[in-house]
Amino acid sequence: MRALVRLLAAALCLAGAAPAAAGPVLLVSLDGLRPGDVAEATARGMTLPNLSALAAEGASAQGVVGVLPTLTYPSHTTLVTGVAPAEHGVGNNLTFDPLQTNQTGWYWYASDVRVPTLWQAAKAAGLTTANVHWPVTVGAPGIDRNLPQIWRTGSEDDRKLLAALATPGLVARLEATVGERYAQGIDETVEGDANRVRFAAALLAADKPQFMTVYLAGIDHAEHQAGPGSAGAKAAIAATNALVGQLVRAARAAMPDVTVVVVSDHGFHAVTTDVNLVRPFVEAGLVTLDAAGKITGWEAEPWLAGGTAAIRLARPDDAALVARVKALLDRLARDPAYHIAAVLDRAAVAKAGGATEASFFVALEPGYETGRDPAAPVTQPSSYKGMHGYMPGDPAMRSTLIVAGPGIRHRDLGVVDMRAIAPSIARVLGANMPSAMVKPVF
């Protein structure tokens, strides 16, 4: 009989069923944290007691292979859906805006997500949910207490916007409890993160949500500005380690049986050079500019993504236009001035799980990023010192996964597919995620 029970339990696990003892989960994302920053902290000149303790207590991955492109918004949507951008619909940070009419609008709105999320799965399992600043959460179904990520100008009107889009009354209630104003969405500093952690801790203490997501941006901000491995990046990681400690203590005080999952969305490359991929499209007559350099028309245009760029066509099924763009990209790939590592056609993009709207993807060599000024020379010194967005197969783009909690034994998870994280969390919650495409890993 016992042997039969074990066989049935194994079969249920393989089928993606929930573990026998479900419990609450705190999911914390540290944007841009590289797995080696924790595993090799001492060698890299850092002391990270909270992150190291979680890794020593529970399970951790050698690295997480992300999605195409390795950007924040596509990755964070994969982290809560278990599917690639081709399925979930968030293919970039910024919406495709060839005529620049959306004023640098990002994928803030959950209505763009085409598949169910962990918040919805948790709600369907009868659990309470909360969120602090996770990307693509404006109007997200399934979140009981929601402080979504959004900004426009960083002005006082942004505060009114957030209060209107958050769970009614939540901002005012938490500000009264914490005794300070909630950080502006545009604030990506460690100091902004520290403010959000205080709000998250207050939310944990008061509401005890059984599934809660918290997003911190300060590491990514520092790595863009100063480069990965820089003194500024290390200082941001050390400060964020302290914030993780605050979150873990608050979560365990509220729910002693909580499982803490720490993730990141991508790794980083140091960069030195901007590459202008728009200029050759202008020269080929595929993009038109006015006298001020503003785009006024397009037939094909790069959708910039840091270390890569999706190529969008106004008529993706126009064979003549496809051939014309392919000829241009083939020529650019042969020109060493553009530092192109690979060009993916539509079939290759689909195989990699990239945005369905992309007819091609251009991948740059490490050290080079897509420049944002269509009037710039082919190459010029980069505005950032660090960048991501490169192909997910690049080991430098691997992200972090650390899991600690009841029933999580200490072990090396190896190299993990990012799509496996959401169904793994669903199992811990006792929830069901049938749309996930990869089996759980914890």
From TrEMBL:
Superkingdom, natural source: Bacteria
Entry keyword Signal: yes
InterPro entries noted in UniProt: Alkaline_phosphatase_core_sf, Phosphodiest/P_Trfase
GO MF annotations in UniProt: hydrolase activity
Pfam families: Phosphodiest
Keywords: Signal
SUPFAM superfamilies referenced in this protein's UniProt entry, alphabetically: Alkaline phosphatase-like
Position of the signal peptide: 1-22
Protein known as: Alkaline phosphatase family protein
Species of provenance: Sphingomonas metalli
